[in-house]
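# step 3/5: fold
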Amino acid sequence: MTDAVKIGEDYVGDGHPVYVIAEIGLNHNGSVENAKKLIDVAVEAGAQAVKFQKRTPDIATPEHMKATPRETPWGTMTYLEYRYKVEFEQAEYSEIDAYCKEKGVVWFASPWDEPSVDFLESMDAVAYKIASASVTDLGMLRKIKATGKPVILSTGMSTIEQIDTAVETLGKENLIILHATSTYPLPPEEANLNMITTLKERYGVPVGYSGHEPGLQISIAAVALGAVAVERHITLDRTMWGSDHAASLEPKGFISLCRDIRIIEQAMGDGVKKVFPGELAPLSKLRRVDG
């Protein structure tokens, strides 16, 4: 059993504060200024990390989609052109890196192809997040394992056998698994939160939750069920153009989520029955027969 994994200065595992990841992804819409505003939201909420996505568009974009027309805020363009339009490169990530250090928050990203792993290594990313779409990309998983960095593995749209193979490829030493269902937005009947316990028992590593539901309840319930990390997409405005905004939390919602997670942490207790100080006055007033 791996008790905890260290990312930056934080430990992720049982007995440690829930590790909250603000998934910015592509919700910056290609704007570093938007990214900085979202980093500010994460910091205000008390998240320990912000996460982006890194692609080499020529490799990561499926062939059948490259020439597909896409309506964008910059006009009609091919899907491949759009992917380049919203992709951050070294200059943007250098600015993000400096801003995160100034704000005291960790950043990392989900690489979607092997050259993106090399890119993130060049930026000295502190950890790697493997997106649900990449669970079966064993070449990339082997490349990520070779970095020796902590790895967070999302498990949406995957069979248990595919997860078995991914875990075998990555090893368990520096691994965190996130239960996820990759429906956007996520309906409650597909959340399957009891998988948190299943994954803990099967793999013996820290297990968290990556959510795509519109509200807060399911993520809060995940913490009550033992999730040691929670990842949620954040946006400045759910009505903004882009594919992930509608399944994201706006600033007020994300701040509320982080507040509620910390309350749930305190409320869980240690499972040992005791008489608490706050009960002493009612005890002396209300109990008629001592036992």
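# step 4/5: annotate
Residues 251-268 form the longest helix (18 residues).
# step 5/5: archive (pending)
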